[in-house]
Amino acid sequence: MMASSYNAKEEDGHHSGSASHGGAAVVKSKKPDNTAFKQQRLPAWQPILTAGTVLPAFFVIGLIFIPIGIGLYVTSNNIKEFEIDYTGVDMNSACYSCAKNFSWNSTTSCLCTVDFTLEQPFESNVFMYYGLSNFYQNHRRYVKSRDDSQLNGDMSALTNPSKECEPYRMSEGLPIAPCGAIANSLFNDTLKLYYLEANGTRNEIPLVKKGIAWWTDKHVKFRNPGGNANLTAVFQATSKPVNWRNPVYELDQDPENNGFINEDFIVWMRTAALPTFRKLYRIIQKKSSTMPTLPSGKYVLDITYNYPVLSFDGRKRMILSTISWMGGKNPFLGIAYITVGSICFFLGVVLLIIHHKYDTRSTGADIPN
Amino acid sequence: VSQSFKNFFSLGGDERRVDSRTIYIGHRSCPASEAFIPPPKFCDNRIVSSKYTIWNFLPKNLFEQFRRIANFYFLIIFLVQVIVDTPTSPVTSGLPLFFVIIVTAIKQGYEDWLRHKADNEVNKYPVKVLEDGKPVDKDSEKIKVGDVVEVKENETFPCDLILLQSSRDDNTCFVTTASLDGESNHKTHYTVPDTEKDLDSLSATIECEQPQPDLYKFVGRMHIYKSNQEPAVRSLGPENLLLKGATLKNTQKILGVAVYTGMETKMALNYQGKSQKRSVVEKSINAFLLVYLCILLSKALVCTTLKYVFQNKPGQDEPWYNEKTQREKDTNLYLKMFTDFLSFMVLFNFIIPVSMYVTVEMQKFLGSFFIGWDKDFYDPEIKEGALVNTSDLNEELGQVEYVFTDKTGTLTQNNMEFIECCIDGFQYKYHDSSSELDGFGVTYGPMSKLQQKAGWEREELFLRALCLCHTVPSAPQEEKGFIASSPDEIALVKGAMRYGFTFMGLESKTMKILNKNDVEMYELLHVLNFDPVRRRMSVIVRTRSGDTLLFCKGADSSIFPRVKLEEVERIRMHVERSATEGYRTLCVAYKCLSAEEYEHADKGLKEARLALQDREEKLTAVYNQVETGMSLIGATAVEDRLQEEAAETMEALQGAGIKVWVLTGDKMETAKSTCYACRLFQRNTELLELTVRTLEERGRRREDRLHELLLEYHKKTVQDSPLAKTRYSSWSVGNQDYGFIVDGASLTMVLNSSSDSNTSHYKNLFLQICQNCTAVLCCRMAPLQKAQIVKLVKNSKGSPITLSIGDGANDVSMILEAHVGIGIKGKEGRQAVRNSDYAIPKLKHLKKLLLAHGHLYYVRIAHLVQYFFYKNLCFILPQFLYQFFCGYSQQPLYDAAYLTMYNICFTSMPILAYSLLEQHIGMEVLLCNATLYSDIAKNAMLRWPPFIYWTLLGVYHGLLFFFGVRLLFGNLALPDNGQVFGNWSYGTIVFTVLVFTVTLKLALDTRHWTWINHFVIWGSLAFYVLFSLFWGGIIWPFLSQQRLYFVFANMLSSVSTWLVMILLVLLSLLPEILLPVLRKPRGPHARQVQLKQTRTQTLYF
């Protein structure tokens, strides 16, 4: 890539005249040391970028990037992704009434059902996401409104949450557990997926709720105070977040997925980078090698509509997606790689022409002088 | 007495305290003074050079530090962070600021501690003070004005003393003033004449001027009261004053009375920090800083405005999931806006990094070591290398446009050798073979009087004059030869010695001369000292036979008007010829004084010496009066050899596009010949003269002639010359070169013309002529005029960078005046070195200092500054862009640890290493190709175009980082297990790309990869990765939020993230790779350099 030559300047290559005369020993300390460092003569590699040296690099980059880009593009294209908006903004949409009649005080939950059709079968494991739009999980006031030591099972933080949790710190004189705006606004819609068989029967598709959170979060960062047993007792002196229907120890029946280590809760607690985001909700595992995980056909999505978004003009979506080695569907990477690869290749060609032309010119008329 | 007192004080009754001080020797009141004036309180003899005490260190030091605008700015940011609820914790900016302040405070504290120690050493130094006739031991700080102090041999004087008694018979003592002005020769000082031997009974007062810093000036007088007698008055001059800091030599002990103590001593008054010189780079930094401050303010303003626009939309200010606290709700809207603005400022404040100041300071401090370390600057003769007195100006060495050089001692060696002389018009040249007067052969006679000689009487008179007319204090010592302050005089005395007249020394006013085994004795009556205005010196001696003779030697211009015309005619030709050969010429004249004449002169001299007011003027008047009607004996020619490689150095400097001006006090012919010898003037150089000689041509008024000449030269050099159009390539072959010669008198006329309008007009013309000449020679310059010239050029259009180089005390003013002052560790003492910014042993070292060191320092620091602004722009730009995606909520993109460490740890070391080690062009190549120096002239790398380039690069990178990752985050499921990344992952990816890009960008710029560069560049990247893994690998108990827990490790588990990071780094560096490649072939110059570079490389391969 670079024209280079090793410039090993020998240390005693340049003698400054008669420096070693007799008598110099008396004030020897004043004489500068003849070391490569002090004389700025450290051996050095001196690369120079020239058209000739950069040229092959461009070709190589082009040749590597274009195949990678094509690979990425194909992979991304092969990823199946289905997305449906169930916010209920439109009069005709199924969840319109649920969305319109939402009230924090209602004790019964509103149910709605959305039908959709998958044109193509989803072969491998399918990941079910919920997506929110115009929801500023990255707002500063929001991001900092949590107490990580409380979530890590710290007893003192449980009863005395951090000031950062304000105004979701205390409720009716009791400390809130888990405190803060993030926990308080936990996404609490329940989604259920049914396969509608040709005869009209609904086949519930099993949704796995384990493995949706980062392993380290689940096992280290989030811990229940005093272990996973007896959560009810531990959270006795605390209050549930104001917007929650159930206290934190009733998030799930499974003690390994209850309290602070509930995976839905952990996923939510990882604040999104952008106001439009998706979060992993459930995993649909591939059963057999012959059957696709989700065959093409009609599906029904049952929604327990608890989460209001219309007040801030937000949207809610349900996304089904397969995943490849590069993650979810994202054509950007493939396109970018192909573009950059092509640019490099093109530049290589341009440079080749310049290099060639310049070389012939310079032999004819060299430097005037 | 009262009469004289009154005379003295009559100038202004109340001003007497200002004018003079009265000292009672031994604190004895004087019987005769009718009104005893209680001695005013003088300051004690304590020297305080320290700045702080233990009590005031903290507040005073902090105050001093926060007076720096940068520190103050960071303090404000820190305070805002503490007071206002800001996105980043105060630690992020507090920690670096705290670090900087602490380090600076420790450094300054340590320096002050050293000063305290030094002060104590001086103040507690034991001295002997005479009390009631007995010496009593005291601390030096206890000495009061009026105390009589005893000093022994090799001790330093504890305060400024008037010498009262010396153990030597001849009432003299010898001192060296090495620590004051660096002159290591012995100087003779005299006791006050005719004082009582018994100091106990001495009752006297001293009137002297108030303390003033000039080491060589002192005016005072002593009144000695004797019982029942008229008080005697003695004049006191610098020869009676022993300065604090000087050392007593060759004298067993002396007694002196303290006249100035403590901070009022001349040494303390001279101890003043030099005024701070600021480099152009610093000015550029400040300009850039202003731009970035504007960027910062506008960013904060934009964000604040948009925030309130955004919040006005329904549901966005306070959605149900993100309610405000009660306090926030209660806050006044405008106050909130203001705090929001401050918060944004704090969020973006990293765009102006504290660390840049630290790095720049470190670079300068560490970088300056390389000058001292350079063994090429080591001179085996004086056994010393270069000296760096200030590290602030390293880069200025690469920007020099004008070099002002002294001639004697700088261009020439100041190693005088007697070459020839001329007696009565006959020329004598010394031949080694003979030492007799007979071997004093005539080689060249005027008017075809070949092989003729002047009468031997004249010859002997001439040689006696050489032997007597000087101030060499002692006979030749073994090995060392003569010791004297003037090398010319030594050369002359040595010259006379060769011809059989040996000066045997001066003992109690008697000069002995050994003349062919005969010892002649002369009584030295008066020495009429040399001064640069008179340009001559004389002695008055009395021979054994009782004749009184005056011998005078001096410059031809000052002697010729004082001797008979016909004598002048015989000698002038020789003098002029010698001068054109580059010799220093002196004319020697003598005069027999009749008894009356001598009486008159003696009286006049004594009177003038006693004068308290205008003593100098009065003396000069008497001198002029005495030195008239002399007869010219002959002239001498002394050669001053050129310094080693003086010509090569000058040629290289001119090749580098630097204009060289020679400023000398010497006469025009000598200076001109030196200029030719140095190749400043070439054969084909057309000389333009603006001297008294050309001005007096054609018998016209000088003013008219000046006007005419200026216009003529201006037309020649500026208007007609193609040089004017192509200024930068001015030093090319084919054009007519001009050399300009101006002398002091003409310069005065130019600068102080009769009318004001003319002055500025002449000044302009003069400057324009000078700027278009390849070399300018200013001769017959007074020291102050040298500084005037420098100032004139310094303040001219375009404010060029000036450099003054000199070796003597007379160069100090121009060394201080110029942007960069260089002292040569020459023979004329150390004053120039002490006042310089850099000191080098020889002139030839200037070439490497400028062409190699200066060039590299400039490139290094320019790159450092640009890089710092660039890297912080692309650091903060993504954070700014992120505000558009987080509801303008001041959410930081990066974690606090990254914000703090970015400039301190991750990206600081590679640029520091670069700025210390980079050699984009090898030193040898720089030295061989002087033209390379002009490539960076006029602050080329820190002008607006490169700054804009770097800024655009920073913007490009910032945009690329942010939006590249934004597109990647179009789908948040990045790992292959379907899990999603959050905002901290986003920031970490951007940050990782940023750190890698910024470091690799520097790697691309590095042209000189030593192992240190490799270590630091790859090391800091590795450190970043390891730190990130470590920082995210542990739940830190002291952190309230574990934001980065396993974020970095998880990021690395995603293939897409890897791919996007590689892509972004490559894409950002693409223009960096492409641009130099495309740029290269354009200029033939670059190609040339490259060729040479490869050539040297192969040489070293």
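qc> Chain A touches chain B through 117 residues (CB under 8 Å).
qc> done
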